[in-house]
Design brief:
about 120 residues; mainly beta; four-stranded antiparallel beta sheet
Length: about 120
């Protein structure tokens, strides 16, 4: 059995990140408080826009190559309200430059939860 220990792994040029082999990583993700609204943590997110209650746009710092990228969404708040988070359809808000989050209670009343997260996977432009 072998053990590999490292603090940093870089490409052979000494500075570039190591490429994934037969794997895919999230190219964008965020954790946001939509009550505020404010992005709390993120990768490849440049801004948030409060479109209306329960609807927010998140602009990418680096655009996706096509709007067919995949998204995983989650909403949060109190466990009693069963929060749902959805990524808007391509014609409504999923563009190469931004992704739209729609949030609501399970019984369909829109609201701005204290937690919302979306990760996007696909090729960047």
């Amino acid at each position: 059995m072998s053990t590999l220990k490292a603090d940093t792994i870089v490409a052979s040029d000494g500075s570039s990140p190591v490429a994934l082999t037969k794997q895919e990583a999230a190219k964008s993700w965020f954790q946001a408080n939509l009550e505020t609204p404010a992005v709390e943590q993120s990768l490849n997110i440049s801004s948030i826009t409060d479109v209306q209650g329960g609807r927010h746009d998140f602009a990418f710092s680096n655009n996706f190559a096509a709007r067919t990228y995949a998204c995983l969404a989650g909403g949060g708040g109190s466990t009693s309200n069963n929060t749902l988070a959805n990524v808007a359809t391509p014609t409504d808000g999923k563009l190469t430059s931004r992704v739209r989050a729609d949030t609501q209670y399970a019984h369909q009343n829109v609201f701005d939860p204290s937690e919302c997260a979306i990760a996007s996977i696909g090729g960047l432009a």
